[in-house]
Amino acid sequence: MVIPVYNSAAMLPELVARLAPVLHSCAGRFEIVFVNDASRDGSWDVLVELRRRHGWIRPIDLMRNSGQHNALLCGIRAARYDLIVTLDDDLQNPPEEIPKLLDALEDHIDVVYGAPCQEVHGRWRDLASQATKIALQRVLGAETARMVGPFRVFRTDLRRAFDDYEGALVNIDVLLTWGTTRFKAIRVGHHERRTGQSNYTFWKLLTHSLNMLTGFSTAPLQWASMLGFAVTLFGMLLFAFVLGRYVLQGASVPGFAFLASVIIIFSGAQLLTLGIIGEYLARIHFRLMDRPSYTVKSGDAAAVARRVEGHPSATSRYSIEEIRRFWGEQAVTHRQSPDASWSDRMAIELEIQQLLEHIQDGDRVLDIGCANGYSTLRLASRRAIEILGLDYIPEMVEQARARLEAERHSLTGRVVFDVGDITALDRPAGAFDKVIVIRVLISLRTWDNQVKGLTEALRMLKPGGTLLLSEATRQGWERLNGFRREWGLPDIPMPSFNEYLDLDRVIEAARPHADLVDVVHFASTYYVMTRVLKPLLIEALGRPIDVADPGMEWNRFAAQLPPGGDYGVQQLMIFRKR
């Protein structure tokens, strides 16, 4: 759920109190992303206090007032679940109406608006609001536009359509049309604002309407063309009238007033058209200035750009091409070091130990996502197996082959490295006893590609074969961050080159082909020791926090402890193919 906040300190506690029972009844897992749009009344302090009480609240503080839709865009990009509900902070839309929106979101619908049965803003505000919706209808070209509002639910996947949008002029309703045409609107209750006053005045709404028309539509230019045509037609008729009078009556049209009126009509049409063209030129000018949609000041949500576990995390997610380029650079920079695939070496060692427990001598193994071959060769040196390592980054495979060449005396004929894409493997089906997938699916960006990768990995297995899926999960990530919040630590954001797996969805996607044997939280204790206790100790000593530094003895000690709990982001999912 995403809620923009501006000068609403007095209403926030009641808003959260009313939202909590509704969201608990609607969803097993949820979050509320509050985006504070540079409020001046202490709203941020209230949000910080609410976050301490409720682990499912994630506040973001913007550096300057960017506008309601810009703040919404920030929150939408930070959201982590499959559905997003947006709501104003003024309680005019009752939170108790959220289940109605969710029920209306059918399989063939992507966006549902909650339209008020009767708006209660005041005559002039309601008039301006209707003007805004008429303008939006012109932009969207759909009757549903007359019923849009801030109370809406939509599928999170739609944000991929505007991942790269960075303009200062933002309208969420228009951006949603870039991803779908499947809209629906239902009637919901609408109450009067009990405290404070709306920040949308009559003139602000009219300005917003003009911004939408000129910022997201060419309709004004088309109107200008029609006006030019109409004035030209009028001029031709006028000329025919003057010429006809002269021919028939032998006299011209007398009077300065007539001539002046004609000049004014034509001059006005020209100035209006030039003004419309000027508006579009101004939009182009502002886009070329590259002014950001918003700037985050602080917050523990994923939208806050920072460095995480040795990798950059940005406001927007990496594209597939950027991910490929990133891992190619990792291979060139770190060459044969384990840091090429993950900066936490102790966690890699824990992963290798866990994989060895499920691999026996004589197995034919496929290792998808072998990176530079570090883990692949460690497994081959500990078990008498044949293993094929695949990676879709050629630079990684080159480093893996170089490492193999150095160790060929002990692994001759048992290890091969090649380039391969998990979503389209050019290998015969049913050829392997074990298939290992290590942090590959999380790099595929979309759920559809992740399902393709999972299906291809299972296709490679013999009946009765085992899939060892070592991936980062949203459940583990959320559990870890919830633990950190209890101790006043900020959330660890998801790296921009990853899209963590939803464990429940993975199990469901694998169900037609394989049975889940176990989910092993092999790194849970290690994560608590290195991502919670260690930062607290280092912070108490006044030193900079580095949660993943593998060179510290603390990490080596943490890796020796037995696993416990489910706080590890990295988990091993074990499936057996039917």
In terms of topology, how is this protein built?
Blueprint: E1 2-5, H1 12-26, E2 32-36, H2 43-53, E3 57-62, H3 68-78, E4 83-86, H4 98-104, E5 111-116, H5 123-140, E6 152-155, H6 172-177, E7 183-188, H7 202-216, H8 219-249, H9 256-288, E8 296-299, E9 306-308, E10 311-313, H10 320-334, H11 345-356, E11 364-368, H12 374-382, E12 386-391, H13 394-406, H14 408-411, E13 415-419, E14 432-438, H15 447-459, E15 461-472, H16 474-486, H17 503-510, E16 514-520, H18 524-540, H19 553-559, E17 570-577
Parallel strand pairs: 1-2, 2-3, 5-7, 11-12, 11-14, 12-13, 14-15
Antiparallel strand pairs: 3-8, 4-6, 5-6, 9-10, 15-17, 16-17
Helix pairs in contact: 5-7, 8-9, 10-13, 11-12, 18-19
Please state the overall shape, judged from the principal axes of the Cα atoms. elongated
Order of strands across the main sheet: 13-12-11-14-15-17-16
**Number of β-strand runs:** 17
Helix content: 40-55%
Radius of gyration: 30 Å
Return the average pLDDT rounded to an integer. Answer: 80
Q: Would you mind describing this structure in some detail?
A:
Strand 11, helix 12 and strand 12 (386-391) form a beta-alpha-beta unit. The strands form four sheets. This protein has a seven-stranded mixed beta sheet. The protein contains 19 helices and 17 strands. Helix content is 45%, strand content 16%. By secondary structure, the protein is α/β, with parallel strands linked by helices. Helix 8 packs antiparallel against helix 9, helix 10 runs parallel beside helix 13 and helix 11 (345-356) runs parallel beside helix 12 (374-382). The chain has helices at 12-26, 43-53, 68-78, 98-104, 123-140, 172-177, 202-216, 219-249, 256-288, 320-334, 345-356, 374-382, 394-406, 408-411, 447-459, 474-486, 503-510, 524-540, 553-559, and strands at 2-5, 32-36, 57-62, 83-86, 111-116, 152-155, 183-188, 296-299, 306-308, 311-313, 364-368, 386-391, 415-419, 432-438, 461-472, 514-520, 570-577. The radius of gyration is 30 Å and the shape is elongated.
